[in-house]
């Protein structure tokens, strides 16, 4: 889930209005009504295949946080003040998990990455950042890199996949930093192979650039790469990780790397307004996520492959004229599903199926640039582990039947 782009359990990139657009009062009311219906259907569902943003009430989330925190150490210490106490413990834990010298807590990933790359620009003397045009800073941050932090962006490639070593070597102008989003969410949660990642990092080093990992979802990457988190983080000069993506936290992020960089980042965090008086609820939820969800992520990644194969079987058996799972074999526990139907028809079929059966299969559907083709993102987490391949096929077929009945 991305800051400012997702409401309720809308897990697709099109869930929020694009930057700079304004909905009319009528369309806004209709959108809010549709969202309320989706949330109600999801809350009433006894079975959920694809996870998404939380739909708890405030009271439910408070109770959940209290229950999850019961087994965590440090509850008898005072609440944090400007990042000491439990926030400092979270920072220590992240540095330990990633094998870095230090880590700093940030209220948002947008701030953490701007600060990291601003620091590197000062150290390298080059404010140009090489990154993919589908990366989060380009898609979802309202040009903050340039407008707030004075950074300039160049693109190694425009193809919807991670950049290659050859493309990094072939950039026509110098750049101070290469930022790699792992996985590249808007391209389908794609990852390079471990060897490809190593080669791309080496290509940046040959260009005398530092390497930053946009690792909002780094937590689930070890299964694909076949190495641990410290080995992945060791390739980069700095790493950003999120606490609410994958880990189910409330909010927040961390920037990890050398002690000197992290100390400088803390100063810029203060200047950017990120030195919040008390952040213990977010830190506590993050520690809980590291304790509870991080060990489960490999099982989610493995089961995502089962779910993807079952969905493919369901679409083929139903005679869907064209479909795409992107990637065909998921690299993480998330992937895209593309179908040749309007988003409105898919939303109605998905919600009506949930209302009638108590089973939620898909989240919100997003129109693609091709008329009549839409996509959604599937997130396989704890709620999906009990689903067999047959369960997935039957439920997907039920949604498809409703599309054709309405058509």
TrEMBL record:
This is Threonine aldolase. Keywords: Pyridoxal phosphate. Its cofactor is pyridoxal 5'-phosphate. The keyword Chaperone does not apply. Residues 1-34 are annotated as: Disordered. Belongs to the threonine aldolase family. Gene3D superfamilies: Aspartate Aminotransferase, domain 1, Type I PLP-dependent aspartate aminotransferase-like (Major domain). Pfam families: Beta_elim_lyase (PF01212). Residues 19-28 have a biased composition (Polar residues). Residues 83-313 form the Aromatic amino acid beta-eliminating lyase/threonine aldolase domain.
């Amino acid at each position: 889930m991305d800051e400012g782009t997702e409401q309720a359990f809308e897990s697709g990139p099109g869930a929020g209005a694009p930057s700079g657009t304004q909905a009319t009062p009528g369309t806004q009311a209709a959108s809010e009504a549709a969202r309320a219906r989706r949330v109600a259907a999801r809350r009433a569902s006894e079975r959920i295949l694809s996870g998404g943003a939380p739909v708890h009430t405030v009271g439910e989330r408070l109770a959940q946080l209290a229950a999850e925190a019961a087994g965590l150490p440090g509850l008898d210490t005072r609440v944090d003040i400007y990042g000491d106490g439990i926030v400092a413990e979270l920072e220590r834990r992240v540095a330990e998990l990633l094998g870095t010298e230090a880590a700093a807590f940030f209220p948002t990933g947008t701030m953490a990455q701007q600060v990291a790359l601003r620091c590197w620009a000062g150290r390298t003397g080059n404010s140009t950042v090489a990154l993919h045009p589908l990366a989060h800073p380009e898609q979802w941050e309202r040009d903050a890199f340039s407008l707030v932090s004075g950074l300039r962006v160049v693109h190694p490639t425009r193809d919807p996949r991670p950049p290659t070593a050859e493309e990094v070597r072939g950039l026509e102008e110098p750049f101070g930093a290469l930022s790699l989003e792992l996985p590249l969410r808007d391209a389908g949660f794609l990852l390079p192979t471990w060897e490809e990642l190593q080669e791309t990092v080496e290509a940046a080093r040959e260009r005398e650039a530092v390497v930053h990992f946009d690792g909002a979802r780094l937590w689930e990457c070890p299964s694909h790469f076949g190495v641990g988190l410290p080995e992945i983080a060791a390739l980069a000069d700095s790493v950003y990780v999120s606490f609410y993506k994958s880990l189910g936290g409330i909010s927040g992020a961390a920037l990890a790397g050398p002690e000197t960089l992290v100390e400088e980042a803390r100063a810029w965090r203060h200047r950017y307004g990120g030195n919040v008086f008390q952040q213990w609820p977010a830190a506590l939820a993050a520690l809980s996520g590291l304790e509870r969800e991080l060990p489960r992520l490999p099982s989610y990644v493995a089961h995502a492959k089962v779910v993807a194969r079952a969905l493919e079987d369901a679409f083929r058996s139903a005679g869907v004229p064209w479909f795409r799972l992107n990637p065909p074999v998921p690299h993480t526990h998330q992937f895209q599903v593309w179908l040749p139907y309007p988003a409105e028809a898919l939303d109605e079929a998905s919600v009506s199926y949930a209302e009638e059966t108590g089973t939620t299969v898909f989240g919100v559907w997003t129109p693609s640039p091709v008329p009549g083709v839409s996509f959604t993102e599937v997130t396989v987490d704890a709620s999906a582990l009990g689903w067999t391949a047959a369960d997935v096929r039957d439920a997907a077929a039920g949604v498809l039947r409703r599309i054709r009945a309405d058509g």
